[in-house]
Amino acid sequence: MTVPNTLTPQNMDSVEPVWFDRFRVEEAEYRYQQHLADQHSGLVVKEGTSSILNEIARARQNIQNSLSFPGEGLQVGTSVGGTEVFARLSTLEQENKDLRKITNDLKALVLKLESRVVSLERGGAAPTNSPAKPVQKEEEDEDDDDDDDDIDLFGSDDEADAAAEKLKQERLKAYQEKKSKKPALIAKSMIVLDVKPWDDETDMSEVEKSVRSIATDGLVWGQSKLVPLAYGIKKLQISCVVEDDKVGTDFLEEKITEFEDYVQSVDIAAFNKL
Fold it and tell me: What percent of the chain has pLDDT over 70?
């Protein structure tokens, strides 16, 4: 920016003002504010220090007073809560006495038990010796009574034993008869057989007729149906109920395969216990 050498009323408005001493003013203001802050902090520290010193001085004075007049402190404490403290002390003393009494009683009881155990271990038979004679006397009296009634008692025992044995035999006989009359449980099974023919020209009605012609004790034939296999061939699926002790699967397979003109093979499709 170019400043004209001469200032005239015409060019005064076009010249911008410049503050060359601004940094000096700012520095002076900063120092002033710092001075104020130092004075304020020193005041606070001084006040805080004075209050702490006062508290310390007061505490020292209280300690000195307590040391100088110990009776006054004791008198104050006694007057404030003396009654309650004495009551508690008396209660504690009474409880202490009771506990001591209970402890002494328990101790005496334990000592008594220990002495009794020791005496029993050393001479356990001694306490039982005194009543031994009366017991022996009673046994002798009983023996005398037995000798007096010797014959009658033995006769009564024999009769009672005979009656008990007879009753036992009767009950055993009745139980055996009841058990023999009870029907025995018969185990049964349901079997489903697949009977396959030779080809599609086999007459399946004749196959079923031949299978049902097998009859024996414990065999009952059930429902049947034709199940398609392949290429027009069908198999006969027939069910039956058998008694396990009388009829088995081997028996059925052997009997059915005897119809060799119609039957190619026999398979067990299902086997269930009833």
Answer: 68
Could you say which of 3.30.70.790, 3.30.300.20, 3.30.70.60, 3.10.20.30 is the CATH number of the domain covering 188-273? 3.30.70.60
Contact 169, 162 (CB under 8 A): no
Residue 68: predicted pLDDT? 66
The CB-based long-range contact list for 133-136 (8 Å cut-off, 24+ gap) reads: none
- Block means of pLDDT (10 residues each) for the chain, 274 residues, are 51 58 77 77 52 77 70 46 78 90 90 88 58 52 53 59 85 81 78 92 91 91 91 91 89 91 91 87
In this structure, the number of other CB atoms found within 10 A of the CB of residue 195 comes to 25
**Residue 75 confidence (pLDDT):** 47
- 45: its two tokens: 């520290």
DSSP assignment of the chain equals -PPPSS--TTTSTTSPP--TTHHHHHHHHHHHHHHHHHHHHHHHHHHHHHHHHHHHHHHHHHHHHHHH-HHHHHHHHHHHHHHHHHHHHHHHHHHHHHHHHHHHHHHHHHHHHHHHHHHHHH-TTHHHHTTHHHHHHHHHHHHHHHHHTHHHHHHHHHHHHHHHHHHHHHHHHHHHHHHHHSPPPPPEEEEEEEEEESSTTS-HHHHHHHHHT---TTEEEEEEEEEEEETTEEEEEEEEEEETTT--HHHHHHHHHT-TTTEEEEEEEEEEE-
Provide the pLDDT for residue 30. Answer: 81
